[in-house]
Amino acid sequence: MIKQRETQKNKEVLIMHVVYMLSYFAICWAVYLLTSSTITFFHLQLDHTLTVVQNWNQDQGWEIASLVKIISFFVLFKFVSIRSISRRPLRDFFVNNFVMPDKRLFALIAFTLFFVVLSFRPVFANKVSFEFSKVFSSFIGSFIYLGCDIILLAFIHRIYPMSKKKRIIASLLFISLMFLLNSKVFIYSDYAEFSLLLYHAILIRLTFWKRLNWSYSFTYLTLCVCPMISFLGIDFIWGNDYSYFVANDVSHFVVYLTLFFVSFLYINFCQSKILDKFAKA
User: Fold this and answer.
1) DSSP E strands: which ranges in 162-276?
2) If you write DSSP's letter for every residue of the chain in order, what string do you get?
3) φ, ψ of residue 186 in degrees (nearest 5)
4) Hey, where are the domains in the chain?
5) For residues 189 and 182, what is the distance between their CA atoms, to the nearest angstrom?
6) Checking DSSP bridges between strand 245-246 and strand 123-124, what pairing results, if any?
7) Phi, psi of 65 (to 5 degrees)
8) What are the CA-CA distances from residue 136 to residues 62, 63, 97, 141, 218 (Å)?
9) pLDDT by residue for the chain (281 residues), tens digit each?
């Protein structure tokens, strides 16, 4: 009887996760359509052609994506936090779910940067001029874009904890929805490739490295993912249009797939008791 209740409870929790994820996707879609329609309306009032509107949306791609993610995050966060007993749920989440990153995480960051640079062999972009503001927008935009996803997912897990097996299912659904959002909803995004799947997968895995936390994923995001997106020409919205470097023509899929398996094996190894035995020896 008790086991049946637990099974039923786990199913209800999984359903809640699925509902919130689908709601997040739908809200992002709705906010983007509203934002895009508003931008188009004012451009047409100025007698701009649709080509001008499309180019402007492309040029302001990260700003639009960041605005959409921030609005969508806070809208859904308000609904999820209804079940929280805290009067300041977001503040308490950041305080209670902070874990000081250790040297194992920084080793993963160093390896990732070294592996990506060695694989892509980036060269200096042959451009007449560079816009530092665009590089800055790419860095901050990617941080907001991915950071909002991770914080929301972690907060949902805090309010509705679930088993590891169910968590994997929920994470796969979330990653798929966010990839679909970037590649199909944000119509100006022509570079939604496997890198976005890799970023979400590793960041979610880091969120559960040492209990539920946000600090590991944010450290990896700040020191590894955002610099790669901004400086190495693997921006999943702008491509290499504004980056200082351009990656050589190599199979991105093979690089990302290798990095995915190596990163996950390393994280699982660090979580195992084998490493602790070596450390004590």
Assistant:
1) 245-246
2) -HHHHHHHHHHHHHHHHHHHHHHHHHHHHHHHHHHHHHHHHHHHHTT--HHHHHHHHHHTHHHHHHHHHHHHHHHHHHHHGGG---SSHHHHHHHHT-----HHHHHHHHHHHHHHHHHH--EE---S---HHHHHHHHHHHHHHHHHHHHHHHHHHHHS---HHHHHHHHHHHHHHHHHIIIIISTT-----HHHHHHHHHHHHHHTSSSS-SHHHHHHIIIIIHHHHHHSS-BTTTBTSS-SEE--S--HHHHHHHHHHHHHHHHHHHHSHHHHHHHH-
3) -75, 90
4) 2-280
5) 7
6) antiparallel
7) -60, -40
8) 10, 11, 28, 8, 17
9) 566 666 677 778 888 888 999 999 999 999 999 998 898 888 888 888 888 888 888 888 889 989 999 999 999 999 999 888 888 999 999 999 999 998 999 999 999 999 998 888 888 877 645 678 888 899 999 999 999 999 999 999 999 888 888 888 888 888 888 888 777 776 555 555 678 888 999 999 999 988 899 999 999 999 999 999 888 878 888 877 778 788 776 677 888 889 999 999 999 888 776 555 555 55
Task: Report the DSSP beta bridge partners of residue 235.
Answer: 239
Mapped onto helix, strand or coil, the DSSP state of residue 203 is helix
Q: What is the pTM of this model?
A: 0.89
